[in-house]
Known about the structure:
The chain has 9 helices and 8 strands. Helix 7 (159-166) packs across helix 8. With 279 residues, the protein is α+β, with helices and mostly antiparallel strands.
Amino acid sequence: MGPDELEDTEQPLSAxxxxxxxxxxxxxxxxxxxxxxxxxxxxxxxxxxxxxARANLPxxxxxxxxxxxxxxxxxxxxxxxxxxxxxxxxxxxxxxxxRRKHFMxxxxxxxxxxxxxxxxxxxxxxxxxxxxxxxxxxxxLQTTPAVPPGSSLPVHATAMGKVLLASSSDLRPSASxxxxxxxxxxxxxxxxxSVLAKELHTVRAGGIAIDDEESMxxxxxxxxxxxxxxxxCVAAVSVTDTSSQLTDEAVRNLSAQVAAAAAEITRSSGxxxxxxxxx
Length: 279
């Protein structure tokens, strides 16, 4: 049987047996329901009964869909709070926009320009599987302490991590923000969830996050958020240098440059900030 004959054997949906059409319809319905649940949870954690009510679905159906999504890490269940929330794989999937040629063609020249202006290492990062993934980097001085693109960094101890954590609608310190233990990397790492929560409120209010030798001694970092076309914070841009170069005065001066670079990438790629200090 040749290719032409194979094409002739394919049937349109309307010509398929009734059971096959019904199965296809059930699959589409389940997919639509799952997407509706993800949209609900994107606004913040919910109890099962609240998800069920908002999705207009029976609790048993809602629970079945949630457990299926949980298996794919698209949602997660906080047993302490008894809440369902968006899972880490949603961030990984959403981070795919960073691989678009259009976005990278906008972001790369801007971070290279910022590296040239500051003489420091400028990085672009996203949240993926509970860590910060460095997707691009521009480096001008070999003495600048940095880690290479493709590396994963802890969220709680990095400026980019704090920026992305601060974008969460829920800044309560329960369950260490869903990322397990807050490991101590240096004497300055914030390991107390309550202290970190307070820090994240400051980051959200100011629009800038600082890593003050919290991930590596002798290194400081400034980061600002990048927003997508929905107004969500989906990435961060950072400037990293030695502590001797990034003095308190330098941090104050460079913070505006980092924020401006992030805002320019946001605008040029079609994104926007929903409202001031909302991330």
